[in-house]
Amino acid sequence: MSLSISVFGLGYVGSVSAACFASMGHQVIGVDVNPAKVETMESGRSPIIEASMSELVAEGHRAGRLHATIDSTAAVLESDGSFVCVGTPSLRNGKLDLSHIEKVAREIGAALKQKKSGHTIVLRSTVLPGTTESMVLPVIEQASGRNRFYGCLQPGVYARGKRGRRLSATAIHNSGGAGCFSSGSFARTLQTDAR
Ligand SMILES: NC(=O)c1ccc[n+]([C@@H]2O[C@H](COP(=O)([O-])OP(=O)(O)OC[C@H]3O[C@@H](n4cnc5c(N)ncnc54)[C@H](O)[C@@H]3O)[C@@H](O)[C@H]2O)c1
Q1: Which of 14, 28, 96, 140 could form a disulfide linkage to 85, CB 3.0–4.6 angstroms apart?
Q2: Which protein residue's CA is at the shortest distance from atom 12 of ligand 1?
């Protein structure tokens, strides 16, 4: 089964995720606030330097399965679920800067107001335990005025230089496993693909 997936943040994690999902046959739309990254991916080139990425992005582009945009609302409305892969840099006080996640959560929530069907949200960014419940979900619920969506926390394990290969083999497997407090056919499909 082919899914439509939006990926927020076209850095190392998001670009690799987007390219791998497209190579698995899913329809993918990447979202970033950086227009240069969006234009690069939209023209079939990789926004990051990483093994196999040039080939994967070009292949997804040629197949018409890999797109990119700065329009977060359109990306949510056109997809079955969103992977949140924005940065969470460390602050001077040692805490994580969650402002990018909060902004994306608000944008996804606002877009969900216009969406009738369910939507799965997978948090791939690094956060401390409890952040999903204490911040991400309340922001989405408040912005969307609803709670009809699914949330997953997907811990990622990568070896440098091997992201492309490792993602399709292992990391997606976590989508419906431990850490997932509610999932739908979206997560089940990705789990099946990863087997
Ligand atoms: N790089 C890794 O090996 C790795 C591994 C596991 C987990 N992580 C975690 O994944 C997250 C992303 O890491 P990364 O290395 O890909 O970061 P990165 O800095 O390379 O990329 C983050 C991207 O998010 C974009 N962004 C910021 N705000 C946005 C918004 N509101 N909407 C859309 N895009 C937005 C930025 O423009 C940037 O392109 C971090 O939390 C990181 O800790 C990274």
Answers
A1: 14
A2: 87
